[in-house]
Amino acid sequence: MTQTRLPLLLVDDQVVLPGMVVPIELDDAAQAAIDAAAASSDDTVLVAPRLEDRLPAYAVVADVVQRGRTPDGQRAAVLRGRTRARLEQGVSGPGSALWMEVEPLEPTPVDEEITSLAAEYRGLLLADLQRRNAWQVIESVNRVTEPSALADLAGYASYVSNARKRELLETPDTAARLRLVIGWTRDHIAESEVSDKIAEEVRAGVDKTQREYLLRQQLAAIRKELGEGEPEGSDDYRARVEAADLPDKVREAAVREVDKLERSSENNPEAGYIRTWLDTVLELPWHTRTTDSVDIPGARAILDADHHGLDDVKDRIVEYLAVRARRAQRGMEVVGGRGSGAVLALVGPPGVGKTSLGESVARALGRKFVRVALGGVRDEAEIRGHRRTYVGALPGRIVRAIGEAGSMNPVVLLDEIDKVGSDFRGDPAAALLEVLDPAQNHTFRDHYLDLDLDLSDVVFLATANVVESIPQALLDRMELVSLDGYTSEEKVAIARDFLVPRQLERAALTADEVTITDAALRELSSDYTREPGVRQLERFVAKVLRKVTTKLGENGEEPVTVDVGDLRGYVGRPRFTPDAHERTSVPGVATGLAVTGMGGDVLYIEATAVPGASGGPSGSGGSGEASVVASDTRLTLTGQLGDVMKESAQIALSYVLGHARELGIEDDSPLRGRVHVHVPAGAIPKDGPSAGVTMVTALTSLATGRPVRSDVGMTGEVTLGGRVLPIGGVKQKLLAAQRAGLTTVFIPARNEADLDDVPAEVLDALRVLPMGDVADLVAQALEPAAAGTPGSEGSPGAQEAYDAA
Is 421:436 a contact under the CB 8 Å cutoff? Predict the structure, then answer.
């Protein structure tokens, strides 16, 4: 094809394709190109998009159809695209226009593929136009028969961007252009169908909302004529607020919210939040209170009937009732007055009846009972509630408990308060400070309600297993009541009076069909379970009764008596047998007493000397092992001990070495080499200072070769001077000593006052010896030295002192 020289007109933000008729505003350069075209014989110009870094490779040969100005005076021209052209090179020409030498491009010859593609594109294009009801455009499309011109019609499409139009301009091949526009049109139709579907759904929703609004208005008018109320309308909320028995400040806040509800439209989301808040406020029992029972003997009878033992908490509840009854008799009762409630913390090992005690207290007081589980709670909003600005906001658990109880003075059991955690959402324990403070909780403010709520008449009972896990500030607001576990006889009584009847009912048995003797129950509590509570004991009772039920079903309905000799056939061999005699049969082993989250327990301290080892630099022998140097002795500690317990071992060794002659230890004793102290049950962390006297006894036993008495247990912190300092958990430790079969227990002299809390049954079964000096304790705890053995002359009269004590 011959080359042609034409002026070039570059346009911004616009692409002209063959067949398109477009108006173009003219700047000076464009006006120069138009003037140059007018000077030529055929009034023709090249039109191409302006590129930033180069001249375009392709342009459209266009005819200048019309020249003139726009209504605002801007110069303009109307151009009609004729055909594509490839730009070759710039040439000189008249005027200031840019002249280019171009090669006009003829359309690709039509073949079968182009015909098929053209038919497909025509169908897509017509379908899109019919969906939009563009009938005039459809007529114009039907008049275009040439495939290349049909593909260039995409220049008019609004969904084809300038970048895509430029791509069409730079694609001379007709088949390639048809494939491009087919893909773009398919994508556009798919997007349009989704948009149309969404718009249709929106229109349908709006129409439905309008229809419902009209129907509701008509329904409201009908109900008004019939004299019926509208429960969901703001008028009804106003009537409910006016009719409700609310405190003055609460009524004012409720009226303000009703005013907001009346001003808001039905479609306003705030209306739903206001209704939920009003429902919560109206459902709370602001002036509803139950009357406390004044029958003190009857309340004590209820407590005794539900729980065996637990005298401390029973006495505290009876005292509370007695004070309330006396104030009522003297006209001093002020409903909801400050300090009229109580906050008790029931601390003890699992299975002693802390949770079930809450229901008994509520029955004794004649109040409603609500349990609030706090185990694992980590969000402060669980206590104080969420602010109403949040979606799905709710009041806190305390407000919900009051609403659930239906009175302002229930018994609220805060279960597992020591399991409360904290994270980025706040500390629930800190939020409980106001709830459990009798001087502040009469104005407790929940974030959701944002109103003062009087909690001063609520009896709060908090339960916990470990008192050390409760924050000190929170513990200071509660009255601590310790439930240290049951004695063996108490367990037998509980099993006989409570556990066996309950399990008989669950197994569909009667007392005439099955009898479990007290001896069997005592055997189960001592040799099959060693726990402070009775949960495991109840499981074994249930297992026995299930076996009995099976036996009766197989062998007929004959009464069955379960005695000690029958237990092995029902529940297997005993799990626990006294082993203190076996453990302490060799020198270097002493029996201590400890307190864990599961109650009291025995703790064995083992000490041994490593032959041939001498003192050296301190180091670590591996995971769980700690080594320290004391004098010329190397001490190795194992058993997953805490820092305090490690220090107790160092103190014990230093005391033994410093008072060796007083303790009857020879200079060449095994303590001058390497000493290894181990506390068995290495998988369990252990810490605390109360094993100090036990470590001194074990080390002295190792050095003298005299075993520790197998019936002896001990507890107490020791100083470098040998003084025995007081410790905690005396009652739990003595209960553990009784369960383990010990008969003699050494305790610090300053803990003698704690024996008043120990049941008489335990004191009768044990010889409790208060000691002030560890040397005296060691002298009585070790077996008498045989004649001629080391230390035989170092502790004269030890047997006599032990017997005298």
Answer: no
Residues in the chain: 805
The token pair that represents 336 in the structure block = 């909801």
- What fold characterizes domain 112-193? Methane Monooxygenase Hydroxylase; Chain G, domain 1 (1.20.58)
* Cα(803)–Cα(797) distance, integer angstroms: 10
**For 381-398, how does the pLDDT look when each residue is reduced to its tens digit (9 = 90+)?**
888 888 887 887 888 888
Contacts of 79 (CB under 8 A, 6+ apart): 9, 16, 21, 22, 23, 24, 45, 47, 62, 63, 64, 65
pTM of full prediction above 0.70 = no
For residues 627 and 675, the answer to whether their CB atoms sit within 8 Å is no
C-alpha torsion sign, points 85, 88, 90, 92: negative
pLDDT at 574: 84
CA 505 – CA 484 distance, rounded (Å):
29
Q: Ramachandran region of residue 760, left (φ > 0), alpha (ψ -120 to 50) or beta?
A: alpha
The chain-wide mean pLDDT, for the chain, equals 82
Contact between 257 and 293 (Cβ < 8 Å): no
* Residue type for position 270: E
Contacts with 488 (C-beta within 8 Å, 6 or more apart), sequence order: 522, 525, 526, 738, 739, 761
pLDDT exceeds 90 at position 602: no
**Under 8 Å CB-to-CB from 631, ≥6 apart: which residues?**
615, 654, 657
Alpha carbon distance 537, 437 (integer Å): 38
Catalytic sites, residue numbers = 690, 733
User: Per-residue pLDDT for 799 more than 70?
Assistant: no
State whether CATH 2.30.130.40 applies to domain 4-105: yes
Q: Of the CATH numbers 3.40.50.300, 3.40.50.720, 3.30.70.1400, 3.40.50.2300, which one belongs to the domain with range 296-482? A: 3.40.50.300
Contact status, residue 154 vs residue 20, Cβ threshold 8 Å: no
364-383: average pLDDT: 85
- Is the pLDDT at 791 greater than 50? The verdict is no
Helix (H) or strand (E) holding 635: strand 633-638
Measured between alpha carbons, how far is 304 from 491 in angstroms, rounded to an integer?
A: 15
CATH number of the 488-571 domain? 1.10.8.60
Residues 321-331 have pLDDT tens digits of: 788 777 767 76
- Do the Cβ atoms of 291 and 457 come closer than 8 Å? no
Q: How far apart are the two ends of the chain, measured CA to CA in Å?
A: 130
CA atoms of 781 and 386, how far apart (whole Å): 61
Name the DSSP class of 767: E
DSSP-assigned beta bridge partners for residue 91: 99
pLDDT at 337: 47
Contacts of 93 (CB under 8 A, 6+ apart): 5, 7, 36, 99
209-225 per-position pLDDT tens digit? 787 777 767 776 776 77
Please tell me the distance from the alpha carbon of residue 558 to that of residue 516, in angstroms, as a whole number: 15
How much is the average pLDDT of 670-682?
Answer: 83
The architecture (CATH level 2) of 580-804 comes to 2-Layer Sandwich (3.30)
Adjacent-strand bridge partners of 773: 723
Sign for the CA dihedral angle at 178, 183, 187, 193 comes to: positive
Query: What is the bridge-based pairing of β-strands 58-69 and 75-91?
Result: antiparallel
Range scoring the smallest mean pLDDT among 45-49, 477-481, 577-581, 793-797: 793-797
For residues 294 and 333, the answer to whether their CB atoms sit within 8 Å is: no
* Stretch 673-699: mean pLDDT: 88
Statement: residue 619 has pLDDT above 60: no
Which residue, among 733, 658, 664, 673, has the nearest Cα to 705 in the 3D structure? 664
Residues 48/61, Cβ–Cβ less than 8 Å: no
Do residues 382 and 397 make contact, with C-beta atoms less than 8 angstroms apart? yes
| pLDDT of res. 615 | 46
pLDDT of 650: 92
Q: For the chain, which residues make up each domain, given as ranges?
A: 4-105, 112-193, 234-283, 296-482, 488-571, 580-804
